Amino acid sequence: MENSDVLLNSFGGETDWRGVMQPALETNLMERILAPENLHRAWKQVKFNKGAPGIDGMVLDEFASYARLHWDEIRQSLRDGSYQPSPVRRVIIPKLRGKGERLLGVPTIDTNYLTYPIRKNSPYPDSTAPLLYF
User: Fold this and answer.
1) Which long-range contacts does 5-9 make (Cβ < 8 Å, 24+ apart)?
2) What pLDDT does 20 receive?
3) Distance CA 119, CA 117 (A)
């Protein structure tokens, strides 16, 4: 385009077609996710599920002290978008009726703990709720 009066977006298209920017439906989604009552509910659910250790080998009993020690860093990384979940631990289990094997990915306890309040507070239906894999 040679017309210097036309604004282009970063993809090269005209920006004139865009309407007025609307505020997000939920401006405090991360604060709602990190609310103490949601985190408490998440911890109760993780304990109830009695999950196996993930790739880091941390067992359920060790997580509470780990979280207390590192909570400020974890919370800040969630808020600024730099949180990176750990890889899952690959486990192979036999299928029912002995017809082959099934591959499972076991998340770490911290990933399991943090995804629970995200899933419960997501504006998406459960089947399409994005997890922490960004």
Assistant:
1) none
2) 55
3) 5
